[in-house]
Hints:
Elements: E1 7-9, E2 12-16, H1 22-34, H2 43-46, H3 53-59, E3 63-68, E4 74-83, E5 88-96, H4 105-120, E6 126-132, H5 136-144, E7 148-155, E8 163-170, H6 171-177
Parallel strand pairs: 5-6
Antiparallel strand pairs: 1-2, 2-3, 3-4, 4-5, 6-8, 7-8
Amino acid sequence: MTNIATQTVGDLTIRPAFNSDGDGIADLIALVCADYPGCVFDREAEFPELDAIVDDFKADDGRIWVAVDDRDRVLGCFGVKYDATTREGELHKVYLHPAARGRGVAQKLMAKALAWLGQVHPECATVMLWTDTRFEAGHRFYEKCGFARTGESRILDDLSNSSELQFRFDFAVYQKALPF
């Protein structure tokens, strides 16, 4: 079994997040949002979970990882929460610094999250996510990883007037194809 705790990718290290990573994750989200017109980042109003990010994920039977450089700056994050009632995982806080893109970091973060999900919640049947309609590069990434658009969408009551699309992945089939 591979160690799912820490992994080095190029000059970045993927490790479980700490509550103290909330500020670095906030900086990363703000940077990503700045690339999209009308996308507003207001930590206090819309991202209070960043004050105790690990606790937030643990409360929903989940986990979050960060990709950090040699100075421990957060250049990527990727989390998954689990609902035992529906046997469904949900991806959250999927962000990558522009300098870290195109280097396989997002794929490594996804693999880390799915490996953890399969080890800790082997009964998981599906994995889903909601993503802003503006994040088209993200849509391509999810589709490349085997996620499919469900046709569902929702409009959030947030400062960015976000509209999101839902993607879904058959995790049970994935687990049968890979030895965990």
